[in-house]
Amino acid sequence: MPKQQMTLRLCGPRGFCAGVDRAIQIVVLALKKYGAPVYVRHEIVHNRYVVEGLKARGAIFVEELSEIPPTEQPVIFSAHGVPKSVPEDAKNRNFVYLDATCPLVSKVHKQAVRHTRLGRHVLLIGHNGHPEVIGTMGQLTPEDVSLIETVDDVANFHADSRQSLGYVTQTTLSVDDTSDIISQLKLRFPDIVAPAAESICYATTNRQNAVKKAALGADFFFVVGSPNSSNSMRLVEMAARIGAKHSRLLHDASQIPWEELEAAKIIGLSAGASAPEVLINEIVEKFHDKFDLKLELTIAAIEDEEFLVMRSLRDVELGPSDMAFVNGPDGSVENNIPQIPESL
Q1: What does the pLDDT look like over 229-274, one tens digit per residue?
Q2: pTM (2 decimals)?
Q3: In sequence order, what DSSP letters do the residues of 12-77 get, joined into one string?
Q4: Active-site residue list
Q5: Domains plus CATH for the chain?
């Protein structure tokens, strides 16, 4: 029997951004330099496959520093950023710590602090309880910052008439969603001050733009990622909003609903910024095996950003196999360059 014909639109960029790649490298490099175990406060990135892979190499994940016994081994802070109280606590416990906060998240921290130094109350547009939001709010006193999640929150916020306002945003939100909130903020508070630079990171925007191109007319759209990954969930929502008939999050190839694809002709595929390329390749290969597959690249941008690890780890070299558990057998870290798996 001939195979069913299928078009698979593979988004680019997809998967790891520079901040996620840097954070994972920090854990791998620390394990090579100091040996196991190294401790990581919170999931280094929001992806179960990555976390389990690092556990297998000797990383121990905790939610609070109080869970770590007295040790000379390094403690690593996740890419999402932490409140300023966490490094202070680490110092008090005599821990050696490595901060893997994404540089773009650190930039938002600095923008928020700058607002307060100039006498502004900070409005943080973000999702309550997300680690990045907790970290950003934790740079300020509770009196200096308010969380805005929705347009309704803008209407319900009561400002002190004597104090000026400034805003920042969580880096992994949808540009479309934040634009509505920002428009309402500017309508209610015409003098509100924007951050010195765009808060939403380039990688979030690039991945959303690629999904916008690939989702139009798609029967199904799959996003590889984890439910607790904000940027992955925004991609799922974006695909549905643009016009994909069905949009769904996948952890890996085992979750593909093959029985629902019998009448499908066009499938879109992307991945959140914390999803490894090895999982995307596995899904593409499964589609290739099952269908008469036409593979299309849907490219929104080419990313060449690279964030260096801290100086204390730059003397440690990564071998070809060190990152293979997330990037495939060749150990490449250039996942954000659109490409078709070599096996196809």
Answers
A1: 989 999 999 999 999 999 999 999 999 999 999 999 999 999 999 9
A2: 0.91
A3: ES-S--HHHHHHHHHHHHHHHHH-S-EEEES-SSS-HHHHHHHHHTTEEEESSGGGSPS-SS-EEE
A4: 132
A5: 5-16+202-327 (3.40.1010.20), 19-102 (3.40.50.11270), 104-188 (3.40.1010.20)
